[in-house]
Amino acid sequence: EPEVTQTPSHQVTQMGQEVILRCVPISNHLYFYWYRQILGQKVEFLVSFYNNEISEKSEIFDDQFSVERPDGSNFTLKIRSTKLEDSAMYFCASSETRMLNTEAFFGQGTRLTVV
Amino acid sequence: DQQVKQNSPSLSVQEGRISILNCDYTNSMFDYFLWYKKYPAEGPTFLISISSIKDKNEDGRFTVFLNKSAKHLSLHIVPSQPGDSAVYFCAAKFGNEKLTFGTGTRLTIIP
Asked: Average pLDDT of each block of 10 consecutive residues along chain B (111 residues)?
């Protein structure tokens, strides 16, 4: 069964460093997303991406964040200068269409720990 | 701004009995609702969904009910099995692909 894969599974970084979280969406999917879950809190939407551009972003997704689809298969989330409060599970997701009744498929997540 | 709320952080149910997980929402613009299941160290897995034009959708042991007037939906699992032990997230969306999640309910099935 096709799945969304994320690497690494766990990333530890020092505050102020840049991190890149990587995702390989399901191959025929066209819509890509990043969500995050801070420990003990709900899953929160960060950004959606379609046709090589951001289609929607939340207020969390400030200038420190960027997304890219560099090579037609990978979908990356970059945090330029990490803060302690960026520590969370980051989930990549993809969906085939933008139709209302389409579910998003999630990867297993990357646990980011900022120290 | 909790547009989707799951007021029960945890629920324990005997194996074989019915599990009922509840979810309330405040945004009347939501027109599609989903339930995701999450095991530790894994991403959310899609379980079942319902459009706002329906009041019930069934898939095997899982049934989702939607009460639009009360802005309430529920997930019924019957019979409950030990493998159903997980965190269940209610999610909603309107007009686009962004999902708004609830805080989750940890379901424990007691053998």
From this structure: 89 98 94 92 92 95 97 98 96 83 96 93
